[in-house]
Amino acid sequence: RDLWVRVVGKPQLDKDGTVVGIIGGTLDISREYTLRRELIETRRFLEQAGRIAGVGAYRVDLDTGSTEWSPQTCRIHEVPEGFRPTLEQAIAFYPPESRPTVERLVGDAIRREGRFEFELPLITAQGRRIWVQATGEVFRDLDGHRTLVGGVFDVSARRRERQALEESHRRIALANAAGGIGTWEWRIPEGELHWDDGAYQLM
């Protein structure tokens, strides 16, 4: 069978400094090598999945303050890959009017060792205003070490679609009111009949 090994050695010198031998050892690191490869493949898979889905991940060591952003999180914020902000710097990406909400939700989650979720505007490093949905949860390991782990998703397109739909409904309602038109919907499977205000007024 194939093995991966680590070989170490130390030269033996005589009194003149000439190498007269080597004492060494060989260590079987096959399991360590396999686990390392699996970890690399898992990280690559998660990164590909995150890029396709548009979801970024992040991790904050609450005891040391160190952070780690996935490449997709960096792309969402339009910063170079490998960017490692402090928690305060990460919150500073949100506009001033949203920052107190973020600080409160994140702060409460850290104090309670719970989770948070919000959908708020964010200003990227390039100055673009986007909307993101962010989640996070605090975990504590057996040694009492606390870590905040979460995800961030650019929902700008979804919000634009929702706003366009709401605007369309508003314009239809205005047109119906101006033209004296009432609308109704009969949901046959549920046996329900829904009327708008215009239909009621006509009746």
What does this structure look like?
- There is one protein chain.
- The chain has a five-stranded antiparallel sheet, with helices on both faces. A two-stranded antiparallel sheet has the order 1-2. It has a two-stranded antiparallel sheet with strand order 8-9.
- The longest helix has 24 residues, at 30-53.
- The chain has helices spanning 30-53, 71-77, 87-91, 99-112, 156-179, 197-202, and strands at 5-13, 19-28, 55-61, 67-69, 115-123, 129-140, 146-154, 184-187, 192-195.
- 39% of the residues lie in helices and 33% in strands.
- The model has no long low-confidence stretch (mean pLDDT 81).
- It is elongated, with a radius of gyration of 29 Å.
- The chain is α+β, with helices and mostly antiparallel strands.
- It contains six helices and nine strands; from the N terminus they run ββαββαααβββαββα.
Number of helices in the DSSP assignment? 6
Q: Strand fraction band?
A: 25-35%
Mean pLDDT: 81
Class from helix and strand fractions: alpha+beta
Distance between the termini: 86 Å
Tell me the series of helices and strands, N- to C-terminal.
EEHEEHHHEEEHEEH
Radius of gyration over C-alpha positions, nearest whole angstrom: 29 Å
Which regions have little confidence, pLDDT < 50, spanning 5+ residues? none
Which range best describes the helical content: under 10%, 10-25%, 25-40%, 40-55%, 55-70% or over 70%? 25-40%
Largest sheet: 5 strands, antiparallel
Number of strands: 9
Shape: elongated
Oligomer: single chain
Can you list the strand order of the major beta sheet?
4-3-7-6-5
